[in-house]
Amino acid sequence: MTDPRPLVLLHGLGQSPIVWQDFVSALGAGRPMHAPWMAGLRPKDPVGFDLAAAAAGVAQELELQGIRQADFLGVSVGGSVAMHLAVERPDLVGRLVLAGPLVRPSASALRMQKLALRLIPESKLVDMGVSRPRMLAVFDALRTFDGLEIISRIAAPTLVVVGGRDRMGIVAARQVLGAVSGARLETVEGGSSLLNADHPRELADLTRAFLDETD
Predict the structure, then answer these.
(1) What are the residue boundaries of the AB hydrolase-1 domain, all occurrences included (predicted)?
(2) Strand 93-99 vs strand 70-75: parallel, antiparallel, or unpaired?
(3) How many other C-beta atoms can be found within 10 angstroms of the C-beta atom of residue 201?
């Protein structure tokens, strides 16, 4: 029996890698897991976000650790980075789990999220381990992001998980299902766009079942 591939956990908007603690506990110790910061979101990074650069940074970090192939779970913008890797570095991506991915976020949805961000007290952002300017830079970068141009090229087995309250995620999930051959959908009732935070056990159960399937 071969050892399971490592699982790379890519966090979402307004999150830091520490958000994965409950998910990791729920998934169990059966496989190695890595939860890297993405370039442009680390506390000491210059303000500015580029999705391709974030994906390249994740790939480089894995290669430095000697990881030639891994499974990926990406939430929100982490899902967008995971999709980019699945297209540009298919050798690196085994199986792909997308939880509330951002595929083609509308301008109105991004404006609403920016407005909501401006209302969050700075002290709360500090407690969350995130920076308001860096998050705003992500929103600006996503204005020109169109994942529909790339997702049809994803060859990795793909599972999409969406929260029942995540309207934008439901639209994105349908876009992935329509473009990625063999992609499957699971819905977590009552879940938001950040399932790793509000429903970590349910997300872990669905991820484990999917990753345990044979390729």
Answers:
(1) 7-205
(2) parallel
(3) 13
Residue 10 is inside which H or E element, if any? strand 7-10
CA 12 – CA 128 distance, rounded (Å) = 12
Longest CA pairwise span in the chain (Å): 51
Residue 213, token pair as written in the block? 């399937």
CA nearest neighbour of 157 among 75, 72, 33: 72
- Token pair, residue 77, equals 């913008």
Residue 31 CB coordination number (10 Å):
16
Residue whose C-alpha is closest to residue 210's, from 193, 191, 189, 185: 185
Domain segments of the chain: what residues? Answer: 1-66+131-145, 147-163+176-188
Task: Kindly list the distances between the CA atom of residue 21 and the CA atoms of 26, 164, 201, in Å, as whole numbers in the listed order.
Answer: 9, 23, 11
Long-range contacts of 209-215 (CB under 8 A, 24+ apart): 210/95, 210/97, 210/157, 210/159, 210/184, 211/4, 211/5, 211/7, 211/31, 211/71, 211/95, 211/97, 213/157, 215/94, 215/95, 215/157
Tens of pLDDT, residue by residue over 160-214, are 999 999 888 898 999 999 999 999 999 999 998 889 999 999 999 999 999 998 7
Beta pairing partners, 70: 93
Between CA 171 and CA 180, with CA 20 as vertex, the angle to 5 degrees is: 30
